[in-house]
Write a structure and sequence with these properties.
CATH topology of the largest domain: f41 fragment of flagellin, N-terminal domain
Distance between the termini: 18 Å
Order of helices and strands: HHHEEEEEEHEEHHH
Largest sheet: 2 strands, antiparallel
Helix content: 55-70%
Radius of gyration: 39 Å
Strand order of the largest sheet: 1-2
Shape: rod-shaped
Length: 321
């Protein structure tokens, strides 16, 4: 009769293998309890580890998008505040121009009005040169250069990116979705050049100031024709003020829409982030009660394997006779 028996070396190998498996399981569960994570090493669960990495990557992208959204909303709110303030100065100048065109002001009142308009011009230029977050708000894409200067001849020069060229600064607020968060100074404020042309609010304000000065010069020279030409120039600014206000209102409406879209995007990102965080928690976090129970069992199994191996290795040849 043939008997299939395991050699002593083979028996030791089996016992050692069982002991190592028990030890590895015990160490794995110990590491899980210490970290609170199901997956400590990628070998614990290769598929689960890949899912964890991909989920963390998605959460990182959502965090980047959310930061872009918050920055975009802040910049748009700041721009809207500046446009609102500009609009108030525009209305002040417009109302003064309406009254002045009735030709009821005496020269002293006209001189005071010109001083006020010139101060409004300087204030509007300062608003147009506002910096936010180390960038000039109305400089287009050229954010490190103050968009406006006033030269010695009184010309108001725009140095930012003109609206006729690519000027948009965009933030990515979702995968492949971008929102524009800036406009240009020449579109909102215009400019003034005494030898060529003028445009927008600044051009209109400068025309009003020049018209008042021409009326004063006509009165001083007792030249009624010059004075009336000055009033005609002043009168021409009324349509300019309306057009400038329409432009500012249109920009506020446009970027109000962008702001609302960013708010909705932020809400969507928050929901997606919560769902992914919950999923990541399911992938990673252990149930401490279950994990502690499994750890105790693994500890007993490991200790038992050590005892069996120790007993087996202490047996003599007489145990087999």
């Amino acid at each position: 009769m043939y008997s299939n028996r395991i050699s002593t070396a083979g028996r030791y190998d089996l016992l050692t293998s069982d002991m190592k498996r028990a030890e590895a399981n015990y160490q794995r569960l110990t590491a899980q309890l210490a970290s609170g994570k199901k997956i400590v090493n990628i070998t614990d669960d290769p598929i689960g580890a890949v899912n964890v990495i991909n989920t963390q990557k998605q959460l990182g992208q959502l965090d980047t998008f959310n930061k872009n959204i918050q920055m975009g909303m802040t910049e748009i709110q700041n721009m809207d505040d500046l446009l609102e303030l500009t609009g108030s100065y525009l209305n002040t100048a417009w109302n003064k121009a309406v009254v002045a065109n009735n030709q009821v002001y005496n020269d002293q009142s006209l001189e005071a009005l010109k001083t006020e308009i010139d101060e409004i011009i300087k204030t509007v230029v300062d608003l147009a040169n506002t910096e936010f977050n180390d960038s000039f708000v109305f400089a287009g894409a050229n954010t490190k250069l103050a968009p406006y200067t006033i030269d010695d001849d009184g010309n108001i020069i725009y140095r930012g990116t003109p609206q006729s060229q690519p000027y948009e600064r965009k933030y990515e607020v979702a995968d492949g979705v971008f929102e524009t968060i800036n406009t240009t100074g020449d579109k909102v404020f215009g400019y003034y050049n005494s030898e060529t042309d003028n445009a927008g609010l600044l051009g209109t304000l400068k025309k009003l100031s020049n018209g008042i000065q021409q009326v004063l010069d006509g009165h001083a020279a007792e030249d009624e024709t010059m004075a009336q030409e000055g009033y005609a120039l002043m009168n021409s600014t009324l349509d300019g003020f309306k057009s400038a206000l329409d432009t500012i209102t249109a920009e506020q409406t446009k970027y109000g829409g962008v702001y609302n879209r960013l708010q909705m995007s932020a809400s969507t990102l928050e929901t997606n982030s919560m769902n992914l965080t919950s999923y990541l928690s399911e992938l990673q976090e252990i149930d401490y009660a279950s994990a502690a129970s499994a750890w105790m069992q693994a500890q007993y199994a490991y200790q038992a394997s050590l005892q069996v191996a120790s007993s087996a290795m202490n047996m003599s040849l007489l145990n087999y006779m």
